[in-house]
């Protein structure tokens, strides 16, 4: 306790040292006060015990402040030939209290910090699940993952360590300054020379390192992106014999990261040695001045000199640590702002106040002058007018990017129309309760989405109460039962990698079985047979004829042979309906559809 470094990180491993060792960029928040106030509000109910942390920080600082004074009393006792028993017992008691207080401080902070972070994660994830698809379509998934993990972890680190250290340092500096003024105002004034020098040094070094570590973080991000692309696209890399180019690109980015990291670490390494030099010089200066004052009789108690020199050690170092911890604190608050940016995004439009329940929908669909654009200045669909009676099987064909999938997204209200309206059973889709509307659709999307659960749970994803018999019947109708039975544990096989261990066709069959099990009155199949072989395609086609019977259904397909039996075929081109009719009608029209069909069937 007589050396304040006992309660501080070792030289070179303070707040800045730790942050720089990790290459973290010190980011300044846009509105620290507002963000902290919002963080305080959002954690209401989860921060019980912070008052104890504040009290323990004050007590820890009190022990640090008292120990130099007690040590000085011990020196005075020795010089006067007095008994040391009481002083030594007091010093031992301070050491014991210091250990106990710091243990309790760590114990409480670990519990409170993790409870607060758990609450923030829950609130954030709960908000993310309610965001519209447009939010995810306009942002990189890697960036969102970074906000959900890295930024939240930064907040956790700050709450569990930086906040405690800031409070402790604040109390320590206040107590030490008060003690120094009490012992000698003149020596206290002289000691501020070292503080000023440390501030100047910190400002010079951190200004340079902030830029270097920002460049390091950018280089690291570029390297990580290249590694991710290389690993995920390794099959393509090998197919086109681009291994050497891939390695050369990696080496270039790796060398760039290495160079900027060396510069950053060298500059950051200047701080602690130079700070120690300043501390030592100040210590020597204070020792000389205090000795002169003692010789001239201005200070008559040698214990005062001992206490003051120990206080000088305590007084200068926390200023650097506070600056470093504050930098980490700023980075965490900046991360907190990025988290709040997500939470400020508008969720899916809520149900209207008097939203209609959708019970036993028939499936009559009418599209009236429907316009839609992902951005206001670029429409994907323009003036779509369509009437689809209940039970109609509708096929949608057209070139890539023509707007086929967009129609499906509007029907399920993944997006809302920009203009016009869509009616289901005579009411605007926006008039229904969202949950009821989504329940009316059985969906098989082009991109298969399976989860790290059993095959049985994946098929029953939308019908958790389904029996095993119902699940197996759905799998049989989708022609998936045979390959599922061959899996190590059949329907209880866990898809560890979200289905990556299955072929694309097998994954698609499971998603088709999932849609079948919902028994929804409206079925949507977006390129459902695009990844299966011809034989399986025919089996699925026969199954779909039974599934879609007496149901309104929408099939998006590039293989026109799979939709020739549809009641209505829509040809979408440039966001408009170019042709519509049955297969026979469109063949007689001899237009776009006829040319597409003849091309695929080898007649052209």
Account of the protein in words:
With 604 residues, the protein is of the alpha/beta class. Helices cover 61% and strands 9% of the residues. The protein contains 19 helices and ten strands. The protein has helices at residues 15-21, 32-42, 50-80, 85-128, 133-137, 141-183, 185-232, 234-239, 243-295, 302-343, 404-411, 434-439, 455-459, 468-477, 481-485, 504-518, 534-547, 583-589, 592-600, and strands spanning 365-372, 381-388, 393-397, 419-424, 427-428, 441-444, 522-526, 552-556, 568-573, 576-581. The strands form two sheets. It has a six-stranded mixed sheet, with helices on both faces. Strands 2-1-4-5 form a four-stranded antiparallel sheet, with helices on one face. A hairpin with a 2-residue loop joins strand 9 and strand 10. Helix 14 crosses helix 16 (504-518). The N and C termini lie far apart (92 Å). Residues 1-25 have low confidence and may be disordered.
Residues in helix, %: 55-70%
Radius of gyration: 35 Å
Order of helices and strands: HHHHHHHHHHEEEHEEHEHHHHEHEEEHH
Distance between the termini: 92 Å
| Biggest sheet strand line-up | 6-7-8-3-9-10
Proportion in β-strands: 5-15%
**Structural class based on helices, strands and sheet pairing:** alpha/beta
Largest sheet: 6 strands, mixed
Q: Are there runs of 5+ residues with pLDDT below 50, and where? A: 1-25
Number of helices: 19
Number of strands: 10
Q: Overall pLDDT, averaged?
A: 80
């Amino acid at each position: 306790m007589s050396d304040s470094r006992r309660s501080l990180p070792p030289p070179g491993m303070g707040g800045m040292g730790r942050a720089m060792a990790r290459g973290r960029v010190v980011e300044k928040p846009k509105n620290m006060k507002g963000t902290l106030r919002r963080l305080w509000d959002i954690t209401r109910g989860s921060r019980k015990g912070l008052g104890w942390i504040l009290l323990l920080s004050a007590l820890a600082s009190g022990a640090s402040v008292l120990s130099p004074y007690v040590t000085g009393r011990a020196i005075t006792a020795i010089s006067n030939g007095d008994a040391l028993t009481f002083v030594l017992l007091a010093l031992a008691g301070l050491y014991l209290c210091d250990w106990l207080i710091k243990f309790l401080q760590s114990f409480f902070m670990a519990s409170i910090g993790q409870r607060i972070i758990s609450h923030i994660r829950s609130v954030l994830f709960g908000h993310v699940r309610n965001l519209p698809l447009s939010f995810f379509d306009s942002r990189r998934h890697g960036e969102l993952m970074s906000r959900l993990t890295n930024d939240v972890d930064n907040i956790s680190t700050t709450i569990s360590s930086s906040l405690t250290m800031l409070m402790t340092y604040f109390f320590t500096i206040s107590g030490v300054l008060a003690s120094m003024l009490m012992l000698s105002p003149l020596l206290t004034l002289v000691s501020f020379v070292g503080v000023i020098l440390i501030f100047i040094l910190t400002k010079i070094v951190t200004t340079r390192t902030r830029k270097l570590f920002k460049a390091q973080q950018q280089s690291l991000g570029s390297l990580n992106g290249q590694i991710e692309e290389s690993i995920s696209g390794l099959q393509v890399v090998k197919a086109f014999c681009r291994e050497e180019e891939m390695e050369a690109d990696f080496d270039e980015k790796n060398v760039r990261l290495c160079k900027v990291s060396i510069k950053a670490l060298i500059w950051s390494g200047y701080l602690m040695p130079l700070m120690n030099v300043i501390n030592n010089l100040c210590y020597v200066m204070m020792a000389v001045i205090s000795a002169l004052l003692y010789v001239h009789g201005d200070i008559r108690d040698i214990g005062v000199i001992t206490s003051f020199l120990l206080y000088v050690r305590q007084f200068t170092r926390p200023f650097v640590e506070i600056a470093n911890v504050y930098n980490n604190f700023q980075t965490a608050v900046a991360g907190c702002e990025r988290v709040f940016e997500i939470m400020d995004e508008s969720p899916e439009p809520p149900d209207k106040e008097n939203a209609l329940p959708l019970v036993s929908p028939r499936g009559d669909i009418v599209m009236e002058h429907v316009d839609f654009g992902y951005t206001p200045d670029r429409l994907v669909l323009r003036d779509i007018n369509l009437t689809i009676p209940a039970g109609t099987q509708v096929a949608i064909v057209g070139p890539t990017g023509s707007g086929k999938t967009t129609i499906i997204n509007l029907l399920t209200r993944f997006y809302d129309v920009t203009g016009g309206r869509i009616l289901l059973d005579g009411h605007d889709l926006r008039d229904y309760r969202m949950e009821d509307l989504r329940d009316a659709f059985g969906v098989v999307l082009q991109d298969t989405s399976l989860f790290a659960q059993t095959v049985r749970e994946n098929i029953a994803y939308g019908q958790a109460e389904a029996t095993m018999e119902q699940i197996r019947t759905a799998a049989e109708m989708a022609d998936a039962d045979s390959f599922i039975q061959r899996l190590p544990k059949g329907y209880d096989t866990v898809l560890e990698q979200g289905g990556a261990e299955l072929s694309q066709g097998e994954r698609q069959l499971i998603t088709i079985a999932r849609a079948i099990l919902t028994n929804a009155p409206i079925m949507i199949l977006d390129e459902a047979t695009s990844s299966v072989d011809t034989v399986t395609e025919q089996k699925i086609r026969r199954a779909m004829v039974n599934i879609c019977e007496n149901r309104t259904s929408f099939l998006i397909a590039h293989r026109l042979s799979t939709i020739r039996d549809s009641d209505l075929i829509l040809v979408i081109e440039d966001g408009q309906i170019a042709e519509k009719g049955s297969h026979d009608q469109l063949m007689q029209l001899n237009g776009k559809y006829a040319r597409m069909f003849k091309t695929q069937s080898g007649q052209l």
